[in-house]
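Retry 2 of 3 after timeout on previous attempt. Resubmitting structure tokens to design endpoint.
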């Protein structure tokens, strides 16, 4: 039996990991060790650890790391708490391998602990480029610490190899978000109305705006212009909370003020994967800077207005309109996205992120790959 530790710290990352976690749990050759931390344990962000339990997963450990403040030092302190907690957890659980996804600071801390304890690391979604966020440095640092790589697209696999990783370690398994879309039993318009209290239709905009961590001084300007543009559109707005990065609390406070000022604003801490994808399928367009708009929306043929630099560098399909931060440009982009001509063009968009077999591909590799000296001793291959 091979023990696979999985660390999850946010609702979005858990949504991408869920199919993989379930396959690990159901496989007779693998033992799941699920470790929950970050915003999952925060009431302010929806206390999504309960969602994990409702999905039927046994949690091996919970590590509470979030502090009340949301500044740069708080993030650094949270990383330290993560490392302290995980060093004890890994020592107790003795995993054979750590599986992690993405590029957040909690995951960087998890990879650092595993590396120092000689636990092999398998990393999902490396090789991507997001020039506007510190996630960029975190992601590539995790790549250099990892022993097995599961990128979401051929171009990202090639990026990892160009970073000096041996090609036999790199497996292009596709993005787990595509598998989510293909496997989701969508809620109907009536079910969503009963659940959320809002009718989701083509007059609805789905909005998520996260802090751009390398532009944090510009955050008030960015949020002010976003809200100004959304007011001008005069459409129903379903807005989800941002992540817990530096600046997240500021965005939440401004969105709460916006909600009080308009009966068209519907603000939610967390929708969960099924509700989120169901809303995404039915809405008129997605507005903001979330990666789900880049990966999942093209498969569902939904127009996207991607604002600013947070996703700059990712592969983008033709349903995505790139907008600067000014209110006028956001307004023009929304109008273009909702035009008959652009909607017609969006119907022909194809996904750039695989075929939706990610969880099976990953679990098959986790079972078969040899954990030996060859895997553990990494070589830098100059190209």
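Retry 2 succeeded. Sequence:
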């Amino acid at each position: 039996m091979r023990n696979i530790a999985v660390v999850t710290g946010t609702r979005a990352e858990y949504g991408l990991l869920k199919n993989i976690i379930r396959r690990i749990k159901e496989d007779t050759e693998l033992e799941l060790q699920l470790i929950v931390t970050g915003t999952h344990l925060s009431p302010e962000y929806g206390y999504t650890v309960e969602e994990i339990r409702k999905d039927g997963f046994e949690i091996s450990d919970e590590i509470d790391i979030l502090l009340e403040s949301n500044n740069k030092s708080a993030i650094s302190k949270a990383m330290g708490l993560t490392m302290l907690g995980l060093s004890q957890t890994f020592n107790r659980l003795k995993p054979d391998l750590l599986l992690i996804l993405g590029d957040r600071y909690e995951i960087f801390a998890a990879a650092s602990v595993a590396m120092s304890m000689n636990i092999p690391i398998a990393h999902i979604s490396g090789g991507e480029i997001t020039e506007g966020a510190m996630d960029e440095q975190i992601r590539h640092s995790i790549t250099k610490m990892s022993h097995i790589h599961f990128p979401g697209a051929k171009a990202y696999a090639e990026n990892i190899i160009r970073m000096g990783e041996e090609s036999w370690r790199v497996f292009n398994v596709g993005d787990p978000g595509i598998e989510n879309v293909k496997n989701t039993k969508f809620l109907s318009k009536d079910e969503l109305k009963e659940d959320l209290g809002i009718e989701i239709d083509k007059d609805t905009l789905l909005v998520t705006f996260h802090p751009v961590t390398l532009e944090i001084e510009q955050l008030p300007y960015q949020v002010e212009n976003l809200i100004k543009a959304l007011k001008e559109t005069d459409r129903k707005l379903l807005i989800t909370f941002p992540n817990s990065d530096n600046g997240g609390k500021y965005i939440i406070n401004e969105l709460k003020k916006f909600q009080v000022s308009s009966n068209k604003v519907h603000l939610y801490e967390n929708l969960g994967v099924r509700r989120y994808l169901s809303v995404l399928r039915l809405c008129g367009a997605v507005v903001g800077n979330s990666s789900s708009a880049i990966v999942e929306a093209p498969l569902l043929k939904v127009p996207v207005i991607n604002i600013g630099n947070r996703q700059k560098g990712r592969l983008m399909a033709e349903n995505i309109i790139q907008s600067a931060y000014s209110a006028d440009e956001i307004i023009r982009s929304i109008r273009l996205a909702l035009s008959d001509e652009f909607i017609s063009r969006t119907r022909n968009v194809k996904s750039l992120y695989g075929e939706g077999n990610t969880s099976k591909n990953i679990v098959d590799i986790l079972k078969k790959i040899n954990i030996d000296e060859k895997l553990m001793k990494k070589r830098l291959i100059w190209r």
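Attempt log closed. The chain is about 45% helix and 15% strand.
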